[in-house]
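Suppose you are handed a protein chain with no further information: no name, no annotation, nothing but its sequence. What can you learn? This example shows the usual starting point.
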Amino acid sequence: MDQNIAGIILAGGQSRRMGGGDKTLLVLGGRSLLDHVVARLVPQVGPLALSANGDPARFARFGLPVLADTVEGYAGPLAGILTGIEWASIACDAVVTVAGDTPFFPKDLIERLATAAATKPGAVTVASSGGRRHPTFALWPLGLHDALRRFLVDEDNRRVSAFIDRHDVVDVEFPMLASGGQQIDPFFNINMPDDLAIAERLLQSIEE
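A reasonable first move is to predict its three-dimensional structure. Written in structure tokens, the prediction is:
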């Protein structure tokens, strides 16, 4: 656990492909997706908060701060990242974000991102797997705050990858998971009902 790194679970999406509602509250293996994500993240970070808009009472049982976007207009994950940086700035040195619909992300995510970040201070450190970058799984230096707010507010640009590409980046490649003789992306996320059924099967077979 690194007490100087705050964790932000990005749960502000509108879940259109799942029919709307809070995707993180869908049930996987008898627990919500958010339960799975919190359980993986708590041992890895210091302060932890949930990035979500709307009535925070629906997440009350998790006992986490619920951070509404400080940029109006449902500006996507970047708005959650910006709000997380602002929330964490008093007590922490950096913020790590994870997607709230990704129940199998690595248990050493923060350790490996933080180690890589030390090689290039000020860079965004991003998780990759299978040669593909996962921009919502990243370590964000607090010093990016002003640039991020300008990008969102002045330029009205909401693309996480586009913001990352403007800055120094360190990519950290994570290995695939083994499941029944197959290779599974540890950043497999649940976008559609079929994905939830796949995740149910993976929950029983993934080797970590």
